[in-house]
Amino acid sequence: MENLTTPPSWTRIINSSSHPGDADDNPYKCVFDEDFKYVLLPVSYGIVCVVGLFLNLLALYAFIFRIKTWNASTTYMFNLAISDTLYVVSLPLLVYYYAMGDNWPFSVGLCKIVRFLFYTNLYCSILFLLCISIHRFLGICFPLQSLRWGHVRRARRVSLAVWAVTVLCQCPVLFFVTTSAKGDAVTCHDTSSKELFGQFVVYSSVMLVLLFCIPFLVIIVCYCLMARRLLQPTRGISRLSRSKKKSVKMIIIVLVVFIVCFLPFHVTRTLYYSFRSWDLSCQTLNAINLAYKVTRPLASTNSCLDPILYFLAGQRFMKFAGNKMPGKAQNEVALGIVPNSHLGASSDTDTLSKELKS
What we know:
Blueprint: H1 22-25, H2 37-66, H3 72-88, H4 91-99, H5 108-141, H6 143-149, H7 152-176, E1 179-182, E2 185-188, H8 197-230, H9 242-261, H10 263-274, H11 282-300, H12 302-313, H13 340-343, H14 347-355
């Protein structure tokens, strides 16, 4: 029904499942049709929880008990697996929350922690993928320099710095996120209260630039340079070697995963926040609200895709329970780096390839 005291563009979309008072509390001045999310989010988060927990525990087992000598890539991947595991164990709370129709029966502190873990995992994943990409870039394009910069002890310090920066940058989430009562239900917001929403948008914009845009650009540059180097023909060999083809495929896979999981979420979230203050029709606002809700589970699927990348990065990783390795595999670098004989990868990665034997 059109509100005669407001412009026609603020025409409301009435949702039968809306709680009383939603229209007054909603910053859009529209009540959206969100029945879809009470099926989409519990199902998608439930799948991510089960699959992600299984794959990440499997990966952690391989890292801790089967890999004897670690290199820089292993260190980054191990920390990435820890981040993913911490996040997926919080998903049962969100599954219950959305299955109950946006009704949060737990404490305010637990709501803050669940939202904090989502954003911490999101940006930890981006930064650790950045570290892995830079390590591969140095190993392929600057093999001599990678001997110094790719040392495992330096990778451990970088990993600690990533955790410190991410946790520090996401601490404001614990301040902004809150709950609010709507009728008989309690909402666990993923943003903030109406009074603090403007400040939250500014904070989110800074995080968007620092923790997504800049790492994304660096990854693209690194992979473009790596692809150009890998596609250069080796002297005396007219066709790409098998290991070079594998490395090119890995570049494509990582970029696709990055674009599918992280890019849509950040784009729709930016539009979602920006459109709140614009005088747009409820149909337009409902469309961007729908897009944002759909891309949120996509951002969570990185917890399932990261372990798959570990397995694809090293052919021996999936066979960590075996007793023998083919002799040819000893000449390959274990976790996605091209063979030492072709591009002079760092010595610690070559050692890891040999130590992956069971």
